[in-house]
Amino acid sequence: MVVTLNLTTIRFALMHMALLGAAFGMLLGQPALPSALVAITIGSFVLGPISDRTKMDTGLWAALFMTGSIAAAFILFHAAGVSAMEAFGLFTGSILAMTPMEMWAITALGAIVVGVFVVLYREIQLVLYDRELAITLGVPAEAIRNGLLVLTGLAVGLSMRIVGALLMDAVILLPALGALMIGKSLRQVLLACSVIGTIGTAGGLLLSMTVDIPSGASMTAVAVALLISVALAKSILDKIKAKR
Amino acid sequence: MAASSNLDSPRPNNLRSGDNSRPTNPRSNNPGPDNPGNATDVRPPAILLEGVSAGYGSQLVLDSVDLLLPRGQSIAVFGENGAGKTTLLKLILGLIKPWSGTVEVAGRRIESEADRRWLRQRIGYVPQGSIPGKLPITVQDAVLLGRWGKAFSYLKRPNKHDREAASRMLELVGIADLGHKDCRELSGGQIQRMNIARALVREPEILLLDEPSTYLDKSSQTALAELLCKIRQCLQLSIVVVSHDEALALKFADKAYRVAGSVIEPACVTEPMPALDPVPLTEPESVCR
Questions:
Q1: CATH numbers and ranges of domains, chain A
Q2: Which residues of A touch B (CB under 8 A)?
Q3: What pTM was estimated for this model as a whole?
Q4: What is the DSSP string of B75-105?
């Protein structure tokens, strides 16, 4: 979704909105994750319609949301008496430090994503393939796009707890890039993305336990190695095909 | 406000007895199978716009426009970029509402959401510059998507009949051998054929094409014009082509109009293009049903 809907800037905006939500939560003495997820959901609902209404690229609005959110978050941190290091801690994460509630949240989101794609597979395919065509055929393209934005936002929020915000692309972007190289249909891309993501996460965790390095960094390293391997394998296969 | 222009009589019966626009294709006045819009057709016109004004925000784009497309005929609409050609198509598609005037498709006035749903069943649309994005999708699947809302939708998934219909349309447009290829690997001409197949797979009564020759070289443009002639004869469709490429559209259109200064008027063509050789009507049954 991040790749095909050109959401590469938006994921950063949503990440910073999560920080703003967490700041609100801390100011009110509440846990950071739920308030961060609420902020992400609000941001996901607002970004799509506002870019439609102003006919400006969603990425441009994302830049505004990103800078505005982080400025507001640091003002709130200052008001709440939170130190800069403590605030930066919200950007870090570890799969080994996840709470049961966070595990349940990730499981529930995974089930929702699978359910949405099973029920709305053709409609999502149409919106991702050609939004204008989808609209002319009567597909509620705007609602589907906004729904995908919300799911992406929630995935971003929860990924921050797995590898930390700075390494989030290891679970959000890299598996999708690899899948897009080898998949010949949306179904194949979704399956390949899940397989690459699972191998990257499990392999990274195994590597972390074996050589005693931070889990987030090892998962990212495995994901990068997987992506390079997929790219190389595809390039070699394409050359062999061309020679035949 | 620009003056209203009367292209054709807004009454379908009047059109059959006389037409104030200049024919731009020698075939347009010839009765017989090559000119399906003949005098025996008493059905309501495919498209009828009466006194339609439309725009965006406070900007008027089309002012009191009349347009009539009889069943089985084809028209070309020319105009500079931003003249209002795409707005005209959006009006016909029900994507924007007219500020004033009425839009009728196949005799039904398009006003409510129910009308628009009904309308979508009858129109095949080839959008401007519709090129495959980043998503991998096979040509067969991309064509199949054109049946959404007609043959399948939320709870009804595509079946064997839908896949066969997609295969038939790929055969009709001459790219049956590319069905399993990734859309991102197609040439410009192949993409346009695929887009036309996707519009036709809805089994429409009316085909709308927005700038179909964009990104095509000369030989592909000629091939496209031949394909549209063939489609019209095979499927007996009413066709509207919006284009800035007059030469292409005049190869198969019965009449031509120009959009300029918010009005639509019959196009003055200084050098009419020679018509293409007629495509035989006896196509193989599997392709030309």
A1: 1-166 (1.10.3470.10), 173-244 (no CATH)
A2: 3-4, 119-120, 122-123, 125-126, 128-130, 132-133, 135-139, 180, 183-186, 188-189
A3: 0.76
A4: EEEEE-TTSSHHHHHHHHHTSS--SEEEEEE
